[in-house]
Amino acid sequence: MASHRGVAVVTVRPERTGDGAAINDVIVHAFGRTDEARLVAQLRQDGDAAISLVAIDGDAVIGHVLLSPMSAPFRAVGLAPLSVAPVHQRRGVGAALVNAAIAQARHDGWSAIFVLGDPAYYGRFGFRADLAIGFLSPYAGPHFMALPLAGPLPVASGLVAYATAFGNPG
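RE: above sequence
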């Protein structure tokens, strides 16, 4: 993997047929358990993998991000999970995946992305908890954030729900 000023320069591309096993391995190693890998498999099976991107080093998949459609008062996707192989963490791979996912969601005409995660990490990309505060969700709280993609959010409140697989993780 090339490096520029200590940060990895990675290639991010859409998931392809045949990437599934490598993606599964990255997810399991990144989280140290199989729950998130089963979630991704279920989202794929349900047709809820709206955007699925991989980071590659040579031919090897070293990271993955998935965005799935949400039930919301406007076109929204949820970012989860974000996975990077442990040996490649803290080198910009996750950031490259998040930036590419945001760009793809914007290109595809989504109005917003919601994420449940670390505000310090996701705040770097423009996600804000104050924008998600008016939305009812089982995940509501300081780690539930929104990122508008095309101007301000169309509305500031309402019910939002992740894809069905999130409620049935196993």
